[in-house]
Amino acid sequence: MTPFVAIARAARKSRATTGGSALFLRCMSNIPENTVYGGPKFQSPNQRVTLATLRQKHRRRNPITVVTAYDYPSAVHLDMAGIDICLVGDSAAMVVHGHDTTLPITLDEMLVHCRAVARGAKTPLLVGDLPFGSYESSSTQAVDTAVRILKEGGMDAIKLEGASPARISAAKAIVEAGIAVMGHVGLTPQAISVLGGFKPQGKNVASAVKVVETALALQEVGCFAVVLECVPAPVAAAATSALRVPTIGIGAGPFCSGQVLVYHDLLGMLQHPHHAKVTPKFCKQYAQVGDVVNKALLEYKKEVIEGSFPGPVHTPYKISPSDVSDFSKELEKLGLGKAASAAAEVAEKINKPEPLGGGSPSSD
Ligand code: KIV
């Protein structure tokens, strides 16, 4: 099958399942809102969140909602909830890969997460984090990485941490390359080496002024929004007031233009019977999904062990009694007498009204 035929088939299938709208190509999420040529338009511009949507929300003082996602199912959930921005954060290193910091995740790993999310989230603006080690050496390296996040990851924009002069130059170069950039100041987890750990920022005058100044510097080179992580509320309020672009707070209080939380944190997905692993104290848990997951797994294990799963309802595939009999005869011919008896025995058992018993039939 040629790629064109495959795409056409996928389009037909998608239209059949989405009631006529060709939403399936959201994976090519970096298609511009207004195409400048007369070619096919795959997406409904009314449905996509773009920088124009965000600007409008910001102008109207409508809070912007941001949540992280790392895979297809989390992206679909964000999409269904109508979250404005889906951030494929390097927090994946911690909440998905189990590392203690965000430092170990690689660009290739981030690209896998980005692609899965791009397949699942049709409407939010997709922002991919530049991982540690992929953009610090030079502006050229930063642009190359940002290009990969859009081209190979299907993202609409990138986020980078920090606002040192080199980082500001990198953000400027990326914007000039035509890629929308979200800045990130305050606690920048990729810099824990120099910050001395996951420490809140802006807690003294010099540090508070630095938060506002660095956010302004990122705005000046064209960032469309700036994340403020773990800073006191008055500092976040000052930055929000000083900036023309939206601020997105995390552990920064309510006086920001929007809020972001990590998917697993807000769902209580790492809930452990005795402790909620790595959930930061600023995070509100809107559910205890971890408890639900633990309970379901324990129940599944118990039912498998006691033989009550799978019962008749979850044993859906049938074979007629005459086929079972012929099948048993074939097995006999093959010298598999015990297997023949097992098939006949089970066929007889399931035709009786009593529930299926535990354990597996005798094997050859
Ligand atoms: O990686 C991430 O999830 C982030 C958010 C916490 C802002 O950078």
From TrEMBL:
Recorded metabolic or biological pathway in which this protein acts: Cofactor biosynthesis; (R)-pantothenate biosynthesis; (R)-pantoate from 3-methyl-2-oxobutanoate: step 1/2
GO biological process, one term: pantothenate biosynthetic process
Major enzyme class: transferase
InterPro entries: Pantoate_hydroxy_MeTrfase, Pyrv/PenolPyrv_kinase-like_dom, Pyrv_kinase-like_dom_sf
GO cellular component terms listed in the entry, alphabetical order: mitochondrion
NCBIfam families: panB (TIGR00222), PRK00311.1 (NF001452)
Swiss-Prot/TrEMBL catalytic activity: (6R)-5,10-methylene-5,6,7,8-tetrahydrofolate + 3-methyl-2-oxobutanoate + H2O = 2-dehydropantoate + (6S)-5,6,7,8-tetrahydrofolate
Domain of life according to the entry: Eukaryota
GO molecular function, one term: 3-methyl-2-oxobutanoate hydroxymethyltransferase activity
Entries under Gene3D superfamilies matching the protein: Phosphoenolpyruvate-binding domains
Identification of the protein by name: 3-methyl-2-oxobutanoate hydroxymethyltransferase
Functional note: Catalyzes the reversible reaction in which hydroxymethyl group from 5,10-methylenetetrahydrofolate is transferred onto alpha-ketoisovalerate to form ketopantoate.
Family label: Belongs to the PanB family.
Entry EC no(s): 2.1.2.11
Keyword terms: Pantothenate biosynthesis, Transferase
